[in-house]
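re: ur msg from earlier - yeah i can do the pyridoxal-5'-phosphate complex, just paste it... oh wait u already did. ok heres what im feeding in:
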Amino acid sequence: MPSDKKDISLSWITTEWAEDREKYFNAVSPPIWQTSNFSFDTVDQFSQAFQDERNQYIYSRGINPTTDILRKKLAALDGAEDCLLFNSGAAAIFAGIFANLKAGDHLVSVKNPYSSARKMFDAILPRFNVSVSYIDGKTIEDWQAATRDNTTLFYLESPNSWTYELQPLAAIAAFAKEKGIVTFIDNTYCTPIYQNVIAMGIDIAMQTATKYIGGHSDTLGGVLCGSAAMMKKIFDTELMTVGSGLQPFNGWLLLRGLRTLPMRLERIRQTTGQLISFLEKHEQVEKIIFPLHPSFEQYELAQQQMTAALGLVTIMLKAKSRAAITAFCEKLDHFLMAVSWGGHESLVIPRIAFIPEDVYSADNESHRHIRLYFGLEDPAYLQADLEQALEHVRKS
Ligand SMILES: Cc1ncc(COP(=O)(O)O)c(C=O)c1O
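and the outut:
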């Protein structure tokens, strides 16, 4: 094992870190401990284990040796004291938020949080007398102005996953600390590899492991990282009672994904750069929305707090009709029309899929958004596909 923190490299974390290979016959790949429960020899040991359910193998709704390897690796990746794992990103958000609110509290959120978070804020929290304010959130002043005496939580998502708005994270974290407000961020877009939010002072760093950590579109998972005290609080209440902890087989798939995470992200980063260069010059493309593109409204802030941007890019075509957007998306042969992202396969989602025909307006920019996810295929193969689909738009 590395002797101190400065020895912790990405390679250590994704492979050796937290893996006690001697304990399982020097197997190179960690085993899947597919068990619901663990037995004890004496009443005393049994009783002792219950003193610390967070660190004792008793029942796999709490912790399990396979998922525990992943827990330690992901805490190290985020530079956090501890980590909690869930069966989906949505479950992680639910637990992290619920554990930090009580009746009468007020939550401030970015105006376009991920849809399940928004549903929770709009449909569930009001039932418990928790109020929510949605703000633009691009400046520290927005957060200061929205704060009330009963504000207990700030919900951030930077960048968000369609139009990539950012929040100034270090300034918000410092202000929140002063006021005793808990900060929660969905950091799925960048992952801790490209945006180290714990180092910026954020209390709870969430990612859906379904995307880049899993990386193969074959499992779901959710991650919360933060202080040991915060993780204990969420574990003792929401994680254990909702029963949405990560299961061993899914944990093993995520461990496998994690081993190649840094190189997959690097490949996606390079492909994204190459395909943006192609798209920005194309006569059929009106606009590209991407946080590290010089045309991006918050380009400077993106450069300050993210070391890279990757994968997700939103474009608008010059042709404004619904038919043109439909033709482009349907003509793509190598981009699957599907939700999610982070796997091998490149994807496309047009916003019009969620907008009824009689509501669609070509004058409303957001209606024309088409989100592309660039996966691990050969960039030349993807570029040729984009080119032929854009050619169909030109002719239509
Ligand atoms: C930005 C973001 N956060 C959270 C989630 C929820 O994650 P999961 O699908 O693993 O529940 C998603 C899912 O698409 C997402 O895109």
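cool cool. The first helix runs from residue 10 to 14. ping me if u need the other ligands too
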